[in-house]
Design a protein that fits this description.
The chain is built from 18 helices and 11 strands. It is α+β, with helices and mostly antiparallel strands. α13 crosses α15. It is elongated. It starts with a helix and ends in a 20-residue tail after the last strand. 41% of the residues are buried.
Amino acid sequence: MDSLITAAARALAAGDPLGALKRVALRDDAPALALRGIAMAQLGDFPRAKALLKSAARAFGPREAEARARCVVADAEIALVSRDLGWPEKALETARAVLEAHGDRVNAAHARNLQVRRLVLIGRLDEAEQALDGFDPMPLPPASRAANALIVAGIAVRRLQTKTARAQLALAREAAREAGIPALTAEVDGAFLALSKPAARLIARGEERALLLEEVAALLASGALVIDACRHVVRAGDRLASLSTRPVLFALARTLAEAWPGDASRSALLARAFRARHADESHRARLRVEIGRLRAELRDVAEVSATARGFVLVPRHAREVAVLAPPVEGQHGAVLALLADGEAWASSALAIALGASPRTVQRALDALCAAGKVQPIGRGRARRWMTPPVPGFPTVLLLPGPLPSD
């Protein structure tokens, strides 16, 4: 690389996209196009960044497979940051293989990180852990080590392994400071801050309060009978009854748990599970049928006994009953939960992450937009959805080539 390309690459590595553009803004050769694309991505102009990277990939010659692979990986990162999860996974995997074959372990590791980050975003945690199994990030530069630690911490948070999450975030903070990239440091600080925010609500014995992530983990490990409205399961220690595909049964279980240690009236159960304002004999008959089904589902963790005015939940092994509810509930709470990360999501990406149809997600977004809870940016295929505040810029983006050593 010539001196201007080298200087621009160093500026990007230090988180200075404007400094990089000053050196290559007027150049149209392939390395300059790639650097300009990365700089524009760091400034938040993703459409322009993608166009420049595609031009760079075409400009690199047929013998420059390694450079083209770096462009593919950078393009995949832009798609990930802009929450466009529909980008081709096979292209990224092919690019990672090319980089490994050419000995570019830093960018190959970064490609692996992108693959794992996508798996984490769409909830495929087992596959993400398998992809990281046996991977040692210590030989990598500080920025790559920080990115890897953030991913491991993200998996630990979703597994409710708070000690592991804090330990990995501490490693990420140390690596980010060593890298000297302010945006990366801010990202790590934001992850630490998320651990101090309420992760769920506890409803028990007629009272309600917010819980931190550590408190959620402690509740689930306490042996109490927990009706988990975040995952739609009923758990007591190691025993688990999933009601994720039985919304009526879960509504009945939650109503019974919220009334515990007392009983829930038949009218309350009918209103909650069937939305019946005026119950008749057919409603009461259906309630008896669904209560029988609920007994069968909960047979390992609790009994459901009839009382004079309704039904009562009787734990088999636990001494306490609690409801674990999301921080924000509503008809479209899952969509709001994904948008709470502050990033701008494509509706197609939300559909992938939620496992729902694009039409269902679009209807939810339209309803939330009408209620003023989300807002669209862009038009057509470039439209993204977000909640305030404005999302931050991407952090670790690839360079078109390795930096020369001093």
